[in-house]
Write a structure and sequence with these properties.
single chain; mainly alpha
Length: 265
């Protein structure tokens, strides 16, 4: 019973964080005049003149998708549209520019994978749940590993991101890189997955509170992107917690038809 309650609340809180972060970036896209989340590189030259319009259109689509999901209107369609928007306006741009920014490239795929995690909880999509979860684990592993190794490669830049009020900035930069690399391994180990996903959610939410919120207050501008992303990524980790509890616990039966469903064992 305890596992069922924990799985349910991790799903609810994870969903709120996931969509809240996307909403922040969708709104900021109107101010930035471009698709903001995952910081895709500039469009190729033949698209460059349309960049502001692309930002307005993509931001509007994301906000509509979120409103549809929140008000329980065509939720499945809204999730498909949300994932497709990220694919078209972020992932494809990273691909066109030969994956020059692997961290943000994997971010865009991670966001899309979470839309499928949500989609897999609805009736009619249960048969794909194991495949969706497997893909989510692999994408999470790859993102954590790339991001963790980047912390060591660009340690001076990462340490500068740590706010001045936090002592031992270099130490925390190395520590964060280490925890991400360890998380990329732990997420692959079945008996560690729940703890790794939960601890990762707590760590990323810590970045939201201690790092990104501070930078938004101090600098504004593109710091809003990091603020929204940290919320969304916290939500993705909590959605993974939901899946892991549902898969591994016999106390987690499906919910009522029409609502989000936990995975059958």
């Amino acid at each position: 019973m305890r596992s069922q309650v924990f799985a349910k609340y991790s799903f609810t809180i994870g969903s709120v964080f996931y969509f809240s972060g996307i909403a922040i970036n969708a709104i900021y896209s109107f101010f930035k005049g471009d698709f903001a989340m995952t910081r895709p590189r500039l469009y190729p030259e033949f698209f460059a003149d349309w960049t502001p319009e692309m930002g307005y259109i993509s931001g509007g689509i994301l906000l509509v998708c979120i409103v549809m999901y929140v008000f329980n209107f065509q939720r499945i369609g809204s999730l498909v549209a949300l994932g497709t928007t990220f694919l078209l306006f972020a992932t494809f741009r990273h691909i066109l520019l030969l994956w020059q920014d692997p961290i943000n490239s994997f971010k865009s795929i991670w966001v899309i994978s979470a839309a499928f995690l949500l989609l897999g909880t609805y009736k009619g999509y249960e048969k794909y749940q194991n495949k969706i979860l497997f893909a989510g684990i692999i994408i999470t592993c790859m993102y954590f590993q790339v991001c963790g190794l980047a912390h060591f490669r660009f340690i001076d830049l990462v340490s500068q991101m740590v706010p001045d009020y936090i002592p031992y900035r270099l130490f925390f930069a190395y520590l964060t890189g280490l925890t991400l690399v360890l998380a990329s391994i732990g997420i692959l180990i079945p008996y560690l997955r729940k703890a790794v996903a939960l601890l990762s959610a707590l760590q990323i939410f810590g970045w939201f509170l201690l790092l990104h919120l501070y930078h938004v207050i101090e600098k504004g501008g593109d710091e809003w992107i990091g603020l929204g992303e940290s919320l969304t990524f916290t939500g993705i980790c909590l959605l993974l917690v939901h899946y892991f509890y549902a898969v591994e616990s016999k106390e987690a039966p499906p919910l009522v038809s029409g609502e989000p469903r936990l995975i059958n064992r």
